[in-house]
Amino acid sequence: MGPMGPTGPTGPFCLETCARPNIWALQPYRCARDDYKDDGTNILLDANENAYGPSLNLASTGNHTTNGTVASPDLDINFLGLNRYPDPHQVELKKALCRFRNTHTHTTRDLTPENLFVGVGSDEAIDALLRCFCTPGRDKILTCPPTYGMYAVSAQVNDVEIVKVPLDTERSFQLQPDTINSTLASDPAIKVVYVCSPGNPTANLIAKSDIQKILEHPTWNGVVVLDEAYIDFSPDGSSLAEWVTEWPNLVVMQTLSKAFGLAGIRLGAAFASPQVAHLLNNLKAPYNISSPTSALAITALQPENLAMMRSNRAKILGQRARLLEELPKISRVGRFLGGTASNFLLVEILDKPRDQGGLASNESAMALYERLAETQGVVVRFRGKEVGCKGCLRITVGTCEEVDRFLTETRSILQDVGHESKANKRATTGGTEEEHRETEASAIVA
User: Fold this and answer.
1) Most buried by CB count within 10 Å: which residue of 176, 215, 297, 416?
2) Helix or strand or coil: residue 350?
């Protein structure tokens, strides 16, 4: 026995019984880079990142003044000040976010910094909302699959049960507000409804009227959380962020990871009523946003860099239109499912050509996914195990050169008769192994 008490197999410490049961049972978080790394040669069309890079005019970055500040027209990071903790309230960053979102499309009221919580990506807001409104082991959240996987991960971490009302696969993955409202009426333990718009992996905007139906529920005491991570790829005026000034039970989450091309700085925001934002800010860690992150985010929200963001967005939308035109010319590519309001598309892969009666096939989609990644270095995302997504790949829109490569390799692989035979053989002789590989590929959260 050591000074800290008995150890080893005969001692009292047992990790399995010491750890919280829900954490012990937690499935490992798997992200985009677990399977295929960014080695400098792969074309990464799997994580919905912005292939055109950050929306920052940093031509002169790298020239440092003697006091440690980056010499750039708009960026001001005092490297010699990194020994000091950052601003815990991030008022200037919040003001910049409010200026960007005060479009007055949905209300005449203005967002102010009191309407904001900022965190380490949208994921911190997802978790903070659960901790704010849900008592572990008692309360529940409602999600609408197919949807972003972090809602479920955070719920399991917080020991919160998930109730699911799937999107309507017969109506391009739209919300089912009447079914949701009936579910909320019958289960008061549901405290939070998470809705992703544009959807992930469905790329469709959720109808504002459907959101309003839930907000107007006559008896439910809970919060609707609208995840708008991809909203800047949608038509102008689509964001409902400013609508939180009208609805105290609405929270709208956003991020700089997508359209702004700043996934590496991990900056997310939650727009809410001042009362809800106050609760979220009360429970956060005091210095959750670093000084460099704050400086980069504020810089990205300045007019010159907003213009760069919009220019890059236009390039992405151009390549998205190209994929919509070119992919259907490949005989074993089926329908586009969902919508086209994001920087990715959800598309079926068929077991044989369309003119031969081809059907959406998980085996064919998985084989294409694996061959693209393992032999050609082109990484997309398999989504065939999700509700209504049989045989589907989710394809992030890349640069012109990346789309060229993706289309070329996809045509080649899907025209390969040997590949088709291999996929069909695998489906009939290796069902258990195939099922395991499909499940593993679908488990990636992003």
Assistant:
1) 297
2) strand
